[in-house]
User: Which sequence fits this backbone?
């Protein structure tokens, strides 16, 4: 067989072995253990933020800076697409 | 052993997405493989925040008798997954625009032929 | 496309848009928010693109104006963040929650019914992000569909 297929199969095998060995080190499914930050967020959402949606209050109030980075990524994607197709639009 | 099955599903998804990147020659198939890897990573983020027998962390009409916060699912991984999905959409749009530009210039989508037509 | 597809798209597009705007507006009460509702509205606009052809839609919608609309959403989002810095000394601070003005009341703790007047600064942020996502994704889909259907790139 070609060298390319042997190298590809070797990479796939090494990645599979690494992932399957590291699955055993994560906490079991359905039991997160220590979750003090999320417990604080759930009990104090209605007092401090004034909403009833825990996920929206995390996205826009407790972690709003990540949403600012996401808005920047959307803006740069639109700018990139408009730049690539600059000659088609005229 | 049976509590590790969702993680093994995530590993299977990442390996299935890695296969077209290594072994296929068509550019569109490589882009599809990258998109499958992104879906696997989003699934992994959601799986990390699950509590057994939990409800969604929304207070509008809870089923009666649920004690919070012991029975609610963690809300922070869901917020990070939202950001990750939007990043996946942005990267996919830019990748497909570049593939269209390459096809217009070279006339073919074969990766090994594009490598040899140096101009 | 044929007459049946055009008539179905004509009927389905207002319902999709109203449902998407409902998901954007009630982001602080039910699951949803700016990003999810924006994706719903853009799927309705993609239905219009498929039914009427991309050249027909591209001649009627100026894409430079749509890109300016997207920048307007981003400027609104940053302005609300800086207003939080000015009024409560924290970047992204929620300065409308708990006060008596627009979107001011706090809900009672526990499982309550929905009240639209709550939320603080969050519904305004939902609107800004919704406008940004709608304009941005619509411009991407429109320009890519037009570029893949013209014979030569001028």
Assistant:
């Amino acid at each position: 067989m070609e060298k390319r297929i042997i190298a590809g199969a070797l990479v796939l095998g090494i990645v599979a072995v690494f992932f399957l060995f590291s699955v055993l080190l994560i906490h079991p499914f359905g039991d997160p253990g220590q979750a003090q930050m999320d417990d604080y967020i759930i009990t104090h959402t209605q007092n401090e933020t004034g909403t009833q949606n825990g996920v929206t209050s995390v996205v826009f109030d407790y972690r709003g800076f990540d949403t600012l980075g996401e808005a920047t990524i959307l803006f740069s994607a639109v700018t990139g697409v408009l730049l690539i197709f600059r000659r088609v639009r005229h | 052993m049976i509590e590790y099955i969702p993680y093994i599903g995530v590993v299977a998804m990442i390996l299935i997405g890695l296969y077209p990147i290594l072994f296929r020659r068509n550019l569109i198939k490589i882009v599809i493989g990258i998109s499958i890897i992104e879906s696997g990573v989003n699934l992994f983020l959601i799986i990390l925040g699950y509590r057994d027998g939990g409800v969604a962390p929304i207070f509008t009409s809870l089923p009666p008798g649920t004690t919070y916060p012991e029975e609610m699912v963690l809300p922070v991984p869901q917020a990070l997954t939202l950001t990750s999905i939007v990043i996946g959409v942005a990267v996919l749009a830019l990748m497909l625009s570049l593939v269209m530009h390459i096809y217009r210039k070279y006339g073919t989508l074969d990766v090994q032929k594009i490598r040899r037509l140096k101009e | 496309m044929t007459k049946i597809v055009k008539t179905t798209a004509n009927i389905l597009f207002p319902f999709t848009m109203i449902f998407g705007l409902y998901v954007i507006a009630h982001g602080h009460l039910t699951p949803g928010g700016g990003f999810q509702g924006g994706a719903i509205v853009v799927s309705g606009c993609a239905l219009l693109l498929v039914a009427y052809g991309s050249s027909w839609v591209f001649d009627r919608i100026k894409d430079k104006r749509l890109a300016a609309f997207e920048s307007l959403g981003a400027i609104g989002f940053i302005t609300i963040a800086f207003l939080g810095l000015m009024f409560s000394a924290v970047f992204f601070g929620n300065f409308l929650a708990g006060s008596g003005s627009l979107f001011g009341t706090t809900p009672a703790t526990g499982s309550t019914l929905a009240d639209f007047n709550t939320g603080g600064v969050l519904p305004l942020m939902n609107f800004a992000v919704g406008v940004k996502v709608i304009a941005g994704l619509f411009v991407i889909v429109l320009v890519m569909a037009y570029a893949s259907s013209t014979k030569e790139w001028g």
